[in-house]
Amino acid sequence: MDPDIPPPVTTLPADAPRLSRPQRAAAAIKDWVVERGMRPGDRLPAEAELMEHFSMAKGTIREALRVLEAQGLIRTRTGPGGGAFVNEVSEARARALLGNYFYFNEISIGDIYELRRVLEPALVSQLAGQLDAGQLAQLENVMMAYERPAKTIEEAERQRHAELDFHALLAEFSPNPLMRFQVRFLISLLKDLTVCRRIYRREIPGLRRSGRDYQSRLLLALRAGDEKSARAIMRAHMHTAQAIMEQQEVVVLRQFLSDAESPPGGRTPE
């Protein structure tokens, strides 16, 4: 065994008894990887060495590695030069996994905007006066996608996604990785929720113009470094967007229930 490898941590978290042996082994391997300062692409020791180091059976170690691979924390490669390697979980994968957790929960538009109303004003307050000319130009380029009214429902849907992309891009500029992830995760929920997809395919008078007006004024405040104005503009933007989306949510859900109750062919049963 490599003498430079520290002994396994024997202190388990409080919830360890609820974990299976492979799950406890996976947690121990994760801690060990962090303690060694391993980086994405680094190769884990061979299976036999892991067995000896953690004093665990081959089956437990193999299952632990499968757990870590399912979580995206390692990747395995067969053949010459193969083995298990530390893998970096991408933000997109993390959002997808978290989205799966909420898949069977009844998340409403109000739930999402309750967080957006807190996070996004704080985000732009953080960014005021901090964005360079290139970053401001990127935001302006996104806004060009909805500069003019859409001619078709399909174009309107693309424009609404682009409006959300504006907010996701703002979050990308945040130096706070938690802020960045949380805002972008909420944006992904708004794109993926069934009720939102139905809303985005409806004609919503004033939505594009209102959103673009708020964003134009926000860019001026960000460029000027006016933290107070940027926060106020985003707060008003979130309140207005929530009101419009919740109104549409009621219409869409009412229509969905009406369609579900209608008999085939639209005929009234005798």
Number of domains: 2
The Rg value, from CA coordinates, equals 25 Å
Overall average residue pLDDT = 86
Strands ordered across the widest β-sheet: 1-2
Percent helix: 55-70%
Can you identify the CATH superfamily of the largest domain?
GntR ligand-binding domain-like
Give the class-level CATH name of the largest domain. Mainly Alpha
The number of distinct β-strands equals 2
> What separation lies between the terminal Cα atoms?
81 Å
Assembly form of the protein:
single chain
CATH topology of the largest domain, by name, is Four Helix Bundle (Hemerythrin (Met), subunit A)
Strand content: under 5%
What are the segments in which pLDDT stays under 50 over at least 5 consecutive residues? 1-16
Shape: elongated
Report the structural category: mainly alpha
Main sheet makeup: 2 strands, antiparallel
Q: SSE string, helix = H, strand = E?
A: HHHEEHHHHHHHH
CATH-scheme architecture of the largest domain:
Up-down Bundle
User: Number of helix segments?
Assistant: 11
